[in-house]
Amino acid sequence: MKRVILDLLKDCYEDEAAHLELRMIRDAQQPRFEALKESHPEIYRDFMSARNTWHEILLRNRRKRVDILTKIVEGQIGSNKLEIICDSCKKELEKKGGLLFGPPDSNDMAKKTHLCVVCYEKIIGEIVRRD
Ligand SMILES: [Zn+2]
Q1: pLDDT block averages, 10 residues each, the chain of length 131
Q2: Strand segments (E) across the chain
Q3: What residues flank ion ligand 1 with Cβ within 5 A?
Q4: Same domain as 94, residue 58
Q5: How far is the CA of 28 from the centre of ligand 1 (A)?
Q6: What is the pTM of this model?
Q7: CA distance linking residue 90 with residue 99, whole number of Å
């Protein structure tokens, strides 16, 4: 999912770069464009009207996409949630806890048990003798 979001964000920045290219062309053509005001006022008017309507809609929608996508990406990257449940107390781990591995089964696979810090301390205190 993160990959898809980052791809969409990349497209938005590509749009932004394309838009800057268009603006450079526009600026280079500015004197000729201004001359249209006199020679072909209807063309000038149509261009200005498109710039202030359709063009603004494109810009506004792109800004909205960038905002939403950025929030999603930051939310995912900024989240420190481990999304691991302690197998003893069933609460979500807030920081990294302990792991308990069982003996390997016939496929050489060991069962892994997650423990939060509190449960780890309780359990290790019961099963390990520290004389
Ligand atoms: Zn626990």
Answers
A1: 84 92 92 93 93 92 90 69 88 91 92 95 88 73
A2: 98-101, 112-115
A3: 86, 88-89, 116, 119
A4: no
A5: 67
A6: 0.50
A7: 14
